[in-house]
Design brief:
3 copies of one chain form a homotrimer.
Chain A (H helix, E strand, L loop, with lengths): L15 E6 L2 E6 L10 H16 L5 E6 L22 H6 L7 H11 L3 E6 L3 E2 L12 E5 L4 E2 L13 H9 L1 H8 L4 E2 L12 E3 L5 H15 L2 H12 L5 H16 L2 H11 L10 H4 L20
Parallel strand pairs in A: 2-3, 3-4, 4-6, 5-7, 6-9
Antiparallel strand pairs in A: 1-2, 7-8
Helix pairs in contact in A: 1-3, 4-5, 7-8
Protein name (chains A, B, C): Peroxisomal enoyl-CoA-hydratase
Organism (chains A, B, C): Plicaturopsis crispa FD-325 SS-3
Family (chains A, B, C): Belongs to the enoyl-CoA hydratase/isomerase family.
């Protein structure tokens, strides 16, 4: 999908509003009346749009945000119908092993999106508002007044959206324990969150504009292929440093022969801005992905 | 062991004093005359009591602490008889591979305790006072005046109690290197310790009371089964994010059908405190543990 | 190589100046006219000298630094001839999989050096100046005015020198993403770098003297064998905590029977400074290394 000509505004989404401008796609969470809770519709719409972003060469950076006047960035899963509303029908028929948490399915899709992803957290966040709606993103901007919590142990439920995998990787196990085993409500300046946010912003209404300005700069100055390969190396680094060395050596050799790297070296020498032209659909090496992708659908996967 | 009726005060411990109140068990290190050093007796008593805490439904949170008037929280291993006093007899007979470090045995037992564990470090700590007596706990409270050190390279010995495994996981390798390879004495506010302590407390005598108030709140507000499953997911998250997603999906499905999760959702809806009733002995899924536990006893284990 | 009698000053290096005094070896980067860029000569000289440091019993601590008047600590790879100048000839003949990044080769050699290693970053650093010239070191000292950047995505190239493996291990994935996926220029006080530097020093000309004073203290107070074993445990900790427990138990048992540990216990008891005499060539256990070293040379290794 080189540069498709559809407009994201025409795709008929209900719970999100999606726009694309100058290489930056914005996803606006559009459920203020439901406190921006996470339910079936937004789940499937986000899943679809992140798969599109991954393939659409026009997209270089993705931002997800909410209206700064909404009651929350995302106040958690919609459990107005109890937890039961969240189960996949398969798990009712075939047993608990057949359930697939929709937050986890979305988390994996966001991680697999090969563009730079930014969560612009301009409001309170709880539960899945902290996990799937934040942890799989590459960067997080946050309003300094946001109230943030992973409340699972206080609700009698397990952490979802692969938070028990991602949070220790992002911040280390000490902070992950402090957050996941207490369910405490914390501010962005809490010692338990240090390192999680790329930037903390005083005014709620400035979070998205600041993220957007940063995203535009990244969209203009970064190579689409180099970003994809770098995300691949960070997520699939090899089991040992020696294996990583073989992987990054090969990546360097491949990218170094391509257009963007030559342009990067020329621009550096000539002290001028870069003008990267390589795209994933035309220029990504066939060696990518160098790992085996795991299918998480029931019957395709088991432990 | 649903809710046994023995009192911890009757178990005849020598080097520790154990009490239980309102779901919170407290272990007081009781060797002030020996500067709270770690020796054979305290080692076996702690091992026994953490195995009891794990099984005793009455226990929801465990705190370990010392008298705030003691010379130290724990000043290290008792090497008054040289290092030789620490060797297991097997290693003398069968060779160095047969030795099992008692700090490591205790560390693994504390990690395997399925309740929330808190080290209330109200005094100086060195060596095993930093490792087995702190690192395997879920949360650490500390007195801001404590002098803290991992002195192994300055004693000609290796880091023990699996510190070379736990410290990088808790804080990352950069801080672990700064601590383990220099043996420097640091304060809780040192940049090398950032993230290790859940809370730093100005007055030494306030460390235990603050930890206790926090523990009581956790005991009242958290689900015993959700805590056990969350600890399991953090310690055994699966090798990949996809595997973690399968594990937490199953955990969500199992817990979501049980009493505590239903109570958690109802209490949230009704805006009232939770009243969790599920216990490990009655309500923990038979799927737990989903991993194979490794026996570390000599002859049951080898590399 | 017990204590060889050669002087590092006689080895005929061109791009580095190497001295040894009181157990501390200093490597001075000597390419100020080329902005201390990284090229073929310095690469092979550093590779050689770190292999010597590893084996030379006289060396207990290694410092790498630059003239504080140089334009930079290391301003990156020398790409005056484009990226092509960096490829190994094998990769031209045999394909991209045959390339071995020279920064990665050096990184692995520095990690394998069994002495304490310190990067004294007394100037700006970019690209390989941040990766191979800093990340594999045990400790990093830095000038607070240094401008630091991992610019790879802005040059159209992949992160090199195993940075995609090392940086997340050192600081966690959140900070590694913030650094590697944005290519931002940051100060040592940036939140994205917290934990990376052992010490941040106000005056540029004080960085090396402070590192040297610290290194001399470490050289006098630490055991060569305990340092080597500790580095081994940190880099090869075993796959599980149980495996780590077996490894550190054996390490404790081995070291505890040797000279340095006995001296460490005696000095502690007698409240006097230690006088460690054990050396790697004479006293390191034949059990070391307990892992299989992986050969990264082309044809000896493949994925």
């Amino acid at each position: 999908m080189a540069s498709p000509d559809f407009s994201y505004g025409t795709l008929g989404f209900q719970d999100i509003i999606v726009t694309l401008d100058a290489g930056v796609a914005t996803v606006l969470i559009n459920r203020a009346k439901q406190r921006n809770t996470f339910g079936r519709v937004i789940s499937s719409e986000l899943l679809r749009v992140f798969e599109l972003f991954d393939k659409d060469d026009r997209v270089r950076v993705v931002i997800m945000t909410a209206e700064p006047t909404a009651p929350a960035y995302c106040s958690g899963a919609d459990i107005s119908g109890g937890w039961g509303g969240l189960w996949k029908p398969e798990s009712e028929k075939e047993g608990e092993h057949a359930h697939r948490d929709s937050g986890g399915v979305l988390t994996i899709a966001i991680l697999r999106c090969r563009k730079i992803t930014i969560a612009a957290v301009n409001g309170h966040a709880a539960g899945i508002g902290m996990t799937a709606m934040q942890l799989p993103f590459d960067l997080r901007f946050v309003w300094e007044g946001a109230k943030l919590t992973f409340p699972f142990v206080r609700r009698g439920i397990a952490p979802e959206s692969a938070a028990s995998f991602l949070l220790p990787r992002l911040l280390g196990h000490s902070r992950a324990n402090s957050l996941l085993l207490t369910g405490e409500v914390v501010d962005p300046s809490s010692p338990h969150l240090q390192g999680l946010y790329h930037k903390i912003i005083p005014a709620r209404e400035d979070v998205y504009p600041e993220a957007l300005a940063y995203a535009r700069e990244l969209a203009a100055q970064t190579s689409q292929t180099a970003v994809a390969i770098t995300k691949g190396l960070l997520q699939h680094p090899g089991a040992t440093i020696e294996e990583n060395h073989l992987l990054d050596s090969r990546a360097l050799r491949i990218l170094g022969g391509a257009g963007d790297a030559a342009e990067g070296a020329r621009a550096f020498k000539e002290r001028r801005p870069v003008a990267f032209a390589d795209t994933l659909s035309k220029n990504l090496t066939s060696w990518y992905p160098w790992w085996t992708s795991i299918d998480i659908k029931h019957r395709q996967s088991k432990l």
